[in-house]
Amino acid sequence: MKHSYDVVVLGGGPGGLLAAIAAGRMGASVLLIERYGFLGGMSTAALVYPWMTFHDIKGEQVIKGIPQEIVDRLVARGASPGHVWDTIGVNSMLTPFDKEAYKDLALEMVREAGVDLLLHSIAAEVRLQGNKITAVTTVSPYGGRTVRGKLFVDGTGDCNLVAIAGGATVTGRPQDGKVQPMTMMFVVGGADLEPVRQYMMQHPEEFWPASRINQLDKLPLTGISGFYSIWKQYAPSYLPRDHALFFAGIHPGQVLINTTRIINKDPTDVEDIIAAEVEARGQVRDVFGFFKQHIPGFGQSYIIETGPQIGVRESRRLVGLYTLSTQDATTGRRFEDVIARNGYMIDIHDPTGKGLINLELEGGAYDIPYRSLVPQDLSNVLVAGRAISCSIEAFASLRTTPACMAIGQAAGTAAALAARHGVSPGALDPKDVQAALVEAKACLR
To answer: How many domains are there within the chain?
Structure first.
């Protein structure tokens, strides 16, 4: 590991990982700093599964490039079936994957791109020269490091680097700052989804209205949202949920359950995150008991795994050169400085209660502009992943893994170009970024 790099990336989740790979492939010297001993972010640290979605609601693929390469390489290893129909009907397609294979592939792709790794580390301090970060100092159980960089990419998901450097961020809803609930996902084995399929066909009113129940005779069952009356009758009353949500794993008998919910906690506050972790593991126990006793096909199931950490949907967001608006997302707005596209609906989990707010993208997929990755007040920083500059509703659409991957590829590409040309990200011509992204098979139109 060196002491100075063209690009220093904080966070090895979908935004930071893709930024590091993209920048390395562009010929930049790159350091990727990650708090765990593995990469992948919420997909591997919090069991967030499956990936959804690379497509718009009509089934047109709008996210390609390095994110699609990852899927292709997992498919080649037998670690993903690729893009398959979403039987819940929230999306047209979703993408199951094996997280252990993804951990391995992520490290392989980082090595291939010539990226250096600093694992088990987080940024604790920054050195500033005006509004420019010159170095970050990390902390770790194994000793800290100070590393200089020309460009920095904040891929922490929480805008941690921007916040440490004193850059402008916002958190949660404008009226009260509350964020979407956290969830502890868990994996069970020994489940039989055939009784679930039969129950769905016999009781379609018990499930999400868009569920593809009339196609279950020919489609594999990939996702289930419902069991409304069973939940109302038998689920622990303290749980702020009104239905069960789970997904078929890629291995026989494996199911990933996304039903716990921790509300009224701030994931950037140490006391709140500790309380959330403790409460969530108790919810896992109770939710699993409910599934085992009351959901058909789960009588012989058992817990395989919970995540190393709770899943965080939302925390800080950047205040950037442009804030992607709710209207931009819902109307399918196109931008001259587009660096990624997204087709996932607006999906807001109520920050204070049981419900969901879902808004379709009436204009289809929308563009994500380069300016939303660029801070107003830090001259050599880009943000990758969910924490870009956007409204709370637009955030609820672009927070998903494929979109964060696409944004990450753009951020890393831009950082490498800015370092090469000796300019700030704000002074970089977006057309140069777009040309490099198109050459790397990203989807911009």
So the answer is: 2
Per-residue pLDDT of the chain (445 residues; tens, 9 = 90+): 889 999 999 999 999 999 999 999 999 999 999 999 999 999 999 999 999 999 999 999 999 999 999 999 999 999 999 999 999 999 999 999 999 999 999 999 999 999 999 999 999 999 999 999 999 999 999 999 999 999 999 999 999 999 999 999 999 999 999 999 999 999 999 999 999 999 999 999 999 999 999 999 999 999 999 999 999 999 999 999 999 999 999 999 999 999 999 999 999 999 999 999 999 999 999 999 999 999 999 999 999 999 999 999 999 999 999 999 999 999 999 999 999 999 999 999 989 888 778 888 988 899 999 999 999 999 999 999 999 999 999 999 999 999 999 999 999 999 999 999 999 999 999 999 999 999 999 999 8
Question: Residue for token digits 């958190």?
Answer: 171
* Of 284, 306, 328, the domain-final residue: 306
- CATH number (domain holding residue 389): 3.50.50.60
Q: Does residue 360 share a domain with residue 418?
A: yes
Residues 360 and 433 occupy one common structural domain = yes
Among residues 306, 329, 357, the one where a domain terminates is: 306
Q: Are 310 and 46 in contact (CB under 8 A)?
A: yes
Domain containing 420 equals 4-47+96-177+314-439
Q: Which residues of 309-327 are buried (b: 16+ CB within 10 A; e: fewer)?
A: bbbbbbbbbbbbbbbbebe
318 and 290 within one domain: no
The answer to whether the CB of 143 falls within 8 A of the CB of 59 is no
Question: Can you read off the two tokens belonging to residue 192?
Answer: 């039989």
